[in-house]
Amino acid sequence: MLLEKMLQSQGFGARKHCQQLIKTGAITIHGEVITDPKHKLNLNDLVFAVHGTQYEYREKIYIALNKPKGYECSHQATHHFSVFDLFDDVHLNRGLQCVGRLDQDTTGLLLLTDDGQFLQALTHPKKHVPKVYQMHTADPVTPEQILQLQQGVELRNEKGIFAATDAEALGTHQLQMTVHQGVYHQVKRMLAAVGNKVEQLHRAQIGQLNLTHLNALPEGKWVYLTAEQIALAKYRAE
Ligand code: URA
Question: Which one is the CATH code of 131-206: 1.10.150.320, 3.30.70.1560, 3.30.230.70, 3.30.420.10?
Fold first, then answer.
């Protein structure tokens, strides 16, 4: 691939801008300054530097964020911060998107990518990728509520039944459950449907990927996923 095209693909701006960067000597490849925009590159294990900052070439990006409270999953956040505020222009220029959404007040595992197929595979309603949520509730969690959640509840304006698997109380006001769809406010609405209320919501796992696989990633921090972690997240998605 030509150097100017590679830089453009990695989010460094329009072709003209990338050509300028190259011609002004801003780009180093394996320690050597390259000033020819048409320089041909082997993309395998490519590491390059722009103004001294190192980057690895990535065909697509797959990111896990431990989402903090008070961040919306939209580019034009209205009342809160946007999760995209936590990323650099090079990510945003590549068209980074959230894989599904978490409410602004929900914390935990959020995936982001510029790979449309990966996004589809994880969010398509027919794929039923399991997602594990942990929550604090306003009222005590009862065995009847757990049973109802497992049997499934109806949600207004949604077709079908919404059931949880592996629902278990983690304390008198704490519940963990797995859901397999991803409709708007699903967990909060399911809890409301059984007569309780979610006070705090946290997503611990998507597919088989959980925050502990990510070395207990601190809130507000993100990492690139490895190929193994991508496969764990896609569990049941194919
Ligand atoms: N269900 C909800 O109600 N909110 C979320 O953020 C995620 C799932």
Answer: 3.30.70.1560
